[in-house]
Design a protein that fits this description.
The protein is of the alpha+beta class and 227 residues long. The chain is 22% helix and 55% strand.
Length: 227
C-alpha cells in the first residue's frame, strides 16, 4: 500500500513537471528586429522566456565622420564600430517597460588625420606646419564594453506580429589606446629625434583627450516582428 502511494505520488510529480515544461515551452516567443541609433544599424534576434525575462543578441555597425580638436590640433577622421551584442531584458511590471544589461563585443576605432596650417605645440615644443607634415592618429577603444540601460519594447505585448522598441543606456569602454605618427615633415635627423620625443608626449595627451569615449551613449529605435 505504501509503495503504491509512493508510485502514485511520483507519477503525479512527473506529470506536473512535464506539464510545467510544456507550458514554459509554449510561452517562449521569438522575434527579430531592426533599429537605428548611436550604434548605427542594428539587427537582432529576441527570445521571451516568460512575462519577466527575455534575451537578445545581434550585430551593430556604425561608420561616422568625426572632426574634432584634440590638444589644440584639428583632426579629420572617422569613428567605426563593428560589434556583436548579447543582452538580458527584465520586465519588472510584465509590460513593455524593460531593464536591460549585457555587453558589446568587437572593434571600436577612431582614425584621424591632421595637417596644421599654422605653428602648433607638439608635446612641449612649437613646430611649423612644414616641420610637422601630416599627423596620423588611431585610437583603439577596446573590444569588450559592458552595457546597462532601460527602454520600451512592445514586441511581446498584445496579439499582433509587429512591435516598436526604444532602448537608451550607456556603453562603458576600456581606456583608449592611441598611436600617433608623423609623415612628410622637413626636420633634420637630429631634430627628428627630439621631435619623436615630443610626439610621444602628444600621444599621451591624446589618450587623455579621447577618454570621452569611455562612456558611450546608446540610443536605439526600431521595429520588431514576432513569430
Amino acid at each position: 500500500m505504501k509503495n503504491a502511494t509512493l508510485l502514485r505520488l511520483a507519477a503525479l510529480t512527473a506529470a506536473a513537471i512535464s506539464s510545467g515544461a510544456t507550458a514554459a515551452q509554449a510561452e517562449t516567443q521569438f522575434a527579430v528586429s531592426g533599429s537605428l541609433g548611436t550604434t548605427g544599424g542594428t539587427v537582432e534576434g529576441q527570445v521571451q522566456v516568460n512575462d519577466y525575462l527575455g534575451f537578445r543578441g545581434g550585430y551593430n555597425y556604425l561608420s561616422a565622420n568625426v572632426d574634432e580638436t584634440y590638444d589644440d590640433i584639428a583632426y579629420e577622421g572617422d569613428f567605426e564600430m563593428s560589434t556583436f551584442g548579447a543582452f538580458i531584458d527584465l520586465r519588472p511590471f510584465k509590460n513593455s517597460f524593460l531593464l536591460t544589461g549585457g555587453a558589446f563585443l568587437g572593434d571600436k576605432t577612431l582614425d584621424g588625420i591632421a595637417k596644421p596650417l599654422e605653428p602648433v605645440e607638439i608635446g612641449d615644443l612649437v613646430y611649423t606646419p612644414d616641420q610637422i607634415g601630416t599627423l596620423d592618429m588611431t585610437a583603439d577603444i577596446g573590444d569588450t564594453s559592458p552595457f546597462v540601460g532601460l527602454g520600451f519594447d512592445s514586441t511581446f505585448q498584445g496579439d499582433g506580429h509587429w512591435g516598436f522598441k526604444l532602448i537608451a543606456g550607456a556603453m562603458f569602454t576600456e581606456s583608449p589606446s592611441v598611436t600617433l605618427t608623423s609623415t612628410g615633415g622637413t626636420l633634420s635627423d637630429a631634430e627628428q629625434e627630439i621631435f619623436l620625443q615630443e610626439l610621444e608626449k602628444e600621444r599621451q595627451n591624446l589618450e587623455d583627450d579621447v577618454e570621452d569615449f569611455k562612456v558611450y551613449p546608446v540610443l536605439q529605435a526600431g521595429l520588431t516582428y514576432r513569430f
